[in-house]
Amino acid sequence: MTMKDYRTIVVGTDGSELAGQVVARAAWLAVRDDADLVIVCAFSQLPRRAEAKNVATLGGDPRTGQVLGREAAGLALDGAMTTARKEGATVSAALLVDGEPSTALTTTAEERSADLIVLGAVHDRSLADRLLGTVATEVTKRAGCDVLVVRPVDEKGDLEIPEEASRG
């Protein structure tokens, strides 16, 4: 079996620490395969007053992967683009999508003929996750391409970007 290079990689971000690790991994893959990198941030509209309060914290629910408010989502997207560029990747598109994260990622991947979706997953045993599933679960079920789920770095630092990716 021969492995193919990825041509288009879609990565999700919510501005969290884990999202930074996820974007760095996706950027490394994009550089390795000379692939287009598409960054997606799903958000939910907020009333104007709530938006102003939320921007200060880049608010969102880390379990849902959805950023609350367009302005906070824009800041999260800017941070992801900075991370990707630091890793040497060229960002071909950076998209703010008003909607549910798994739909935003799978729809974008389909529209852009992506070969890979990269997203993060936090191990959460909440009742909501057990009943409704996580973004990673939904994307894995619905995606028409490969899916890479990146776990957070644990105390041992088991998630490392390969050395060749950090060379400029």
Instruction: Tell me the overall shape.
Output: globular
* CATH 2nd-level architecture: 3-Layer(aba) Sandwich
Distance between the termini: 32 Å
- According to CATH, what is the class? Alpha Beta
Alpha-beta classification: alpha/beta
Q: Determine the strand fraction and express it as a percent band.
A: 15-25%
Count the beta strands: 7
Low-confidence stretches: 155-159
Radius of gyration: 15 Å
Number of helices: 6
CATH superfamily: HUPs
**What is the CATH topology assignment?**
Rossmann fold
Number of domains: 1
Can you give the helix content as a percent range?
25-40%
Query: Can you write the helix and strand succession as a string?
Result: EHEHEEHEHEHHE
- Give a short account of the largest sheet: 7 strands, mixed
